[in-house]
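FORM 12-B: Structure-to-Sequence Request
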């Protein structure tokens, strides 16, 4: 279920897997944690056993006040490079076994040596153990939106979560305020310390950035709601065929951008994602190339796709054969730079693909020159 206002007590019914509600917003300071705590307090008054697994108030007094009266599971000390750092105590939460756990900042990267690398993996572990979880995240932390967020804000967000978390959530609550109100909250010192305000307004919190991020957040939740409605009604797409998107990659560092573009297309069309790398039998990959392809495979899998790697002397024929085998309906390919002589003799890869795949749509993505 996707919601904006209502508390759903039925969400707290424990089955084999716990239920997950995600509070999402366009940026820090919109009130995700505040809203999560408000809902938790209301559920506590109704008799629900609620604990705080991890809370980040960022010294915001109004948020801290909302947490008063809620039990906190003591954080776990993790030693890293002779420094003791605090992380969520997953085992402590499981031992306490509450009905509902509150976990802030889903995209956080845990200290090395923790039970899991990422906090969202901690949450998945709690859910698999039968506990219900409320969590928070900002829209810019979705994996498939990385390149789009860079284009909008000029900032590369390092901590990200797989899109599937949003898809698999039982509820997504969009916490929405206008960019004007968010900027006012920032200027009033309700989001960051005073010395960070001017820098934030000139960078991430620029008005045009907030407008675009707000649109992203609302559209993402709307798309999920439409998908959920389709699943509940049992209806198929208008033509009865599920779109299958094939992203073709190389060892070019821009290939990860192609994968994310393909994932966005899959999300919009409610289709399936495949990523293909074609290796030539007479060409050997360097160590760096191999490591990069492994990263691409992990990225593909985190976005719910299937990674394919085949060996063939002709990349175009390999793509065509794969497209036929997997019933591909659309292909995403990067714009390639070929010599004029090679173009004259063989034609471009795009031209050859069009000749081989007359009934498949091609998406030619312009890539920056590195």
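FORM 12-B RESPONSE
SEQUENCE OUT:
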């Amino acid at each position: 279920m996707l919601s904006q206002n209502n508390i759903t007590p039925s969400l707290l019914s424990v089955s084999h897997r716990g239920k997950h509600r995600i509070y999402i917003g366009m940026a820090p300071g919109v009130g995700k944690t505040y809203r999560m705590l408000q809902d938790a307090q209301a559920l506590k008054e109704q008799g629900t056993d609620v604990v705080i697994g991890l809370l980040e108030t960022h010294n915001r007094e109004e948020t801290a006040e909302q947490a008063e009266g809620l039990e906190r599971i003591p954080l776990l000390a993790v030693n890293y490079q002779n420094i003791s750092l605090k992380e969520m105590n997953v085992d402590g939460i499981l031992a306490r076994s509450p009905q509902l756990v509150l976990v802030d900042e889903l995209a956080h990267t845990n200290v090395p040596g923790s039970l899991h690398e990422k906090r969202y993996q901690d949450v998945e572990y709690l859910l698999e153990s039968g506990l219900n979880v409320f969590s928070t995240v900002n829209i810019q932390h979705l994996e498939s939106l990385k390149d789009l967020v860079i284009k909008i804000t000029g900032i590369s967000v390092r901590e990200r979560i797989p899109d599937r978390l949003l898809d698999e959530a039982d509820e997504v609550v969009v916490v929405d305020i206008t960019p004007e109100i968010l900027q006012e909250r920032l200027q009033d010192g309700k989001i960051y310390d005073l010395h960070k305000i001017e820098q934030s307004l000139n960078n991430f919190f620029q008005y045009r950035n907030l407008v675009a991020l707000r649109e992203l957040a609302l559209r993402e939740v709307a798309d999920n709601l439409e998908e959920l409605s389709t699943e509940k009604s049992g209806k198929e797409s208008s033509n009865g065929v599920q779109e299958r998107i094939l992203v073709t990659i190389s060892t070019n560092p821009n290939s990860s951008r192609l994968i994310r573009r393909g994932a966005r297309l899959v999300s919009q069309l409610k289709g399936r994602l495949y990523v293909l790398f074609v290796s030539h039998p007479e060409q050997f990959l360097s160590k760096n190339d191999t490591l990069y392809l492994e990263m691409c495979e992990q990225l593909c899998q985190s976005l719910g796709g299937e990674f394919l790697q085949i060996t063939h002397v002709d990349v175009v024929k390999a793509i065509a054969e794969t497209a036929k085998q997997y019933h591909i309906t659309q292909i995403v390919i990067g714009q390639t730079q070929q010599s004029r002589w090679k173009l004259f003799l063989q034609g471009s890869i795009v031209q050859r693909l069009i000749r081989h795949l007359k009934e498949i749509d091609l998406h030619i993505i312009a890539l920056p020159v590195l």
